[in-house]
Amino acid sequence: MNQADVSKLVSQLRIKVNPRLRKFRSPGGPEARLDKLRKTVTALIKHERIELNYPRADESRMYAERLISDAIRYGDCHKETMEMADYWLVEKQLVHKLFKVLVPRFANYNTCYTRMYRAPTLYPETRGKALLELKGNPYPSLLPENHTNRNLIHNVLLDEAKKAYRTRKYAEIAANIENLTEESRK
Q1: Which phi and psi angles does 52 have, rounded to 5°?
Q2: What is the 3-state secondary structure (H, E, C) of the chain?
Q3: Each residue of 14-48: pLDDT tens digit?
Q4: pTM, 2 dp
Q5: What is the C-alpha separation between 134 and 32, in angstroms, rounded?
Q6: Calpha distance 5→8 (Å, rounded)
């Protein structure tokens, strides 16, 4: 089997995946830990933006990326992909959302499908929170826009004031040059 065939078998994840899984302890054991991750992935697909603690957000992001990546690659007719979607999505109506809404949205993406932000902490002793969201969600952006909108009224007024100031200064410079040339002729 050559390298091209192997790359088709492995999902094309676009985020950094830790080769070792995190060793989180759960009172209910490994099954309860996986159940929490399944609920987290389900909530992410359902709400498209969730807030949770950072380690769980980081790990559930890997599973959500893998689920969406395989759904895009193989589609809803692939048996293993449907079994994986059935396992990771606790609410079964979200399987339809995955294949009918999210797969067309992310079909042409060249980057990862999720975005994760660290939430600010109020006190040093509080645990780190994170915000995990799917890209292209209907919610307003969390980050402020860095570019200014030139069509806002105060920006239009400032631009016009700058133009008027420049034309007045250019007229003064032209008058000074004219005076100097007349004096040099005399």
Answers
A1: -155, 180
A2: CCHHHHHHHCCCCCCCCCCCCCCCCCCCCHHHHHHHHHHHHHHHHHHCEEEEEHHHHHHHHHHHHHHHHHHHHHCCCCHHHHHHHHHHCCCCCHHHHHHHHHHHHHCCCCCCCEEEEECCCCCCCCCCEEEEEECCCCCCCCCCCCCCCCCCHHHHHHHHHHHHHHHHHHHHHHHHHHHHHHHHHC
A3: 666 666 666 677 788 888 889 999 999 999 999 99
A4: 0.69
A5: 25
A6: 5
